[in-house]
Design goal:
With 162 residues, this protein is of the alpha+beta class. It has helices spanning 12-20, 37-45, 48-59, 68-73, 133-160, and strands spanning 3-4, 23-32, 79-80, 83-88, 92-97, 102-111, 114-123. Helix 2 (37-45) crosses helix 5. Strands 1-2-7-6-5-4-3 form a seven-stranded antiparallel beta sheet, sandwiched between helices. The mean pLDDT is 93. It has a single domain (3-160), classed as Alpha-D-Glucose-1,6-Bisphosphate, Chain A, domain 4 (2-Layer Sandwich), CATH 3.30.530. It comes from Primorskyibacter flagellatus. This is DUF2867 domain-containing protein.
C-alpha cells in the first residue's frame, strides 16, 4: 500500500522546503527485509513506468542509461537525465532538476523486519515566490504519478528478490 504522508522532519527534502519554500509532497510504502538506497533508486529508475519517462526525456535531448545509476549512487557521477545530485547520504538522495523548479527525493528507513521506502517531490517557487498556475493545474496528475512510480519501484524490488 502506498500512502501519502508528511515530509519527515530532519530529511533532505524537509531542509530544501524550509530553505526555499514552495510545495513538497511525500509518499511511503513498506518492503519486506532490508533494502538499500542503491537498490531502491535502481528499482525506481529502471521500472517500466520510469523507463517511459526516460524515453520522453531522451526525445528531448536528455540522455540517461541504466549504467548511469550505479555511478550516481556511488558518487562517480552527479547527473541523470534532467537531474543533478544535490545531496546524498547513506539513506537519502536528493536530485534537483537542472535549470528547473523541481526536485526528487528518495529515502530508505529500516523498520524492524521491513524497510520504509519514501519518495517525495518539491516544486520550488519562482522569482515572484509563486508556483504558477500550471503547477497547480497539474498537481493532481503529479500526485497520482508519484504513487504509481513508488509502486513500480516496490514491484521491481519484489521481482529482484525472487
Amino acid at each position: 500500500m502506498i500512502r501519502r504522508t508528511e515530509v519527515p522532519a530532519g530529511t533532505l527534502l524537509h531542509a530544501l522546503r524550509r530553505e526555499r519554500g514552495g510545495h513538497a509532497d511525500c509518499f511511503v510504502t513498506e518492503c519486506p527485509g532490508a533494502v538499500t538506497l542503491f537498490d531502491y533508486v535502481t528499482a525506481f529508475y529502471t521500472s517500466p513506468l520510469f523507463r517511459a519517462e526516460r524515453a520522453v526525456l531522451r526525445a528531448g535531448g536528455h540522455r540517461s542509461s541504466d549504467a548511469d545509476i550505479p555511478l550516481i549512487m556511488t558518487g562517480q557521477a552527479d547527473r541523470f537525465a534532467v537531474w543533478r545530485v544535490r545531496r546524498r547520504t547513506d539513506t537519502e538522495l536528493l536530485m534537483r532538476q537542472i535549470g528547473g523548479p523541481t526536485a526528487s527525493w528518495f529515502m530508505v528507513a529500516p523498520s524492524g523486519p521491513t524497510t520504509r521506502l519514501y519518495f517525495g517531490s518539491a516544486v520550488l517557487p519562482d522569482e515572484d515566490g509563486g508556483l504558477g498556475s500550471g503547477v497547480r493545474l497539474l498537481m493532481p496528475l503529479h500526485l497520482i504519478y508519484s504513487r504509481a512510480l513508488l509502486a513500480a519501484a516496490k514491484r521491481g524490488l519484489a521481482r529482484a528478490r525472487r
